[in-house]
Amino acid sequence: MSASKEISAHIPYLRRFARALVGDREGGDAYVLATLETVVAEPGRISESEDLRVAVYRLFLNVWASSPINAHIDRSGALEENGRRNLEAISLKPRIAFLLQALEGFDLDQIGQTLQVSEREAGELIEAANGEIADQIATDVLIIEDEPLIAHDLRSIVEELGHRVVAMPRTHAEAVAAIKESSPGLILADIQLADGSSGLDAVNEILGSLSTPVIFVTAYPERFLTGEPPEPAFLIAKPFNVESLKAVISQALFFDRRAGRRERTVPWVGM
User: Fold this and answer.
1) Strands 214-218 and 234-237, how do they pair?
2) How many helices (H) and strands (E) does the chain have?
3) Of 40, 87, 131, 214, which has the fewest Cβ atoms less than 10 A away?
């Protein structure tokens, strides 16, 4: 495959990233076009010895950073109003790192290469973004989990991000009952519950009367990977990585269109 064809395969995703970063379809596309023009004019800017996707995104960011309008976000554009407002409130470099991870699926090594920082610094940028997101949209969380140690680990992670755990039911019936006492802004749920009941069934029943993002944290991810709808947007396999779970929590709340309209019900301390 020629270099131009290899690069062209990444362009639809680069446009998505550009529109989210710039906040405007036309502006994002203009920066992508400028990046492609740079590739043609200065082919040496893309090294054949490195990850092509990383190189293309890094070049895009260099082109974007060279423009005096790069801090402007047009309110006519790519994300829903709430998502755009959340994005604007994140500091610039953590914002870029967050979008590379949340939208493009870059790992910390790839983020570091793209931003020309170490993997450790990339992790710190993601952590900063997660903290700033939590500052904006701290919410109540329901944890549906039948293993006490795991439930308390999840609670600690959630609270470290500045959210409040309202209940930790262990069965389908307890989960449904808990919803009558509160309206959580996020649900973390296992599949196999204490009495043999299904966390998936509990969530489906809850979502019949409440619209809220759900993250399944499960030792049985294959039960979701059927290729048939509905499949969850957010799925974490046990044993889970703490930093990955924090990132997914922030992503779920960031892209939830209702998150910004929630109000904190009790005082809290952010990260």
Assistant:
1) parallel
2) 12, 5
3) 40
Helix, strand, or coil (residue 96):
helix
* H or E element at residue 119: helix 119-137
* Separation of alpha carbons 43 and 71, rounded Å: 27
pLDDT bucket at 44, cuts 50 / 70 / 90: confident
Which residue, 118, 121, 94, is CA-closest to 21?
A: 94
Q: Are residues 123 and 243 in contact, defined by beta-carbon separation less than 8 angstroms?
A: yes
Angle at 217 between CA 215 and CA 218, to 5 degrees: 135
Please indicate, yes or no, whether the overall pTM of this predicted structure exceeds 0.85. Answer: no
Half-sphere exposure of 19 (CA within 13 A, CB side): 16
> Residue 246 belongs to what H/E stretch?
helix 242-254
Distances in Å between the alpha carbon of 182 and those of 43, 185, 206?
A: 57, 10, 12
CB contact at 8 A, 142 and 188: yes
Residue 252 is which amino acid?
Answer: A
Q: What is the pLDDT of residues 53-95, one digit of tens each?
A: 999 999 999 999 887 555 444 444 444 555 555 555 578 899 8
Distance CA 198, CA 182 (A): 21
From the number of C-beta atoms within 10 Å of its C-beta (0-12, 13-18, 19+), residue 92 rates as exposed
Residue 212 in contact with residue 179, Cβ under 8 Å?
Answer: no
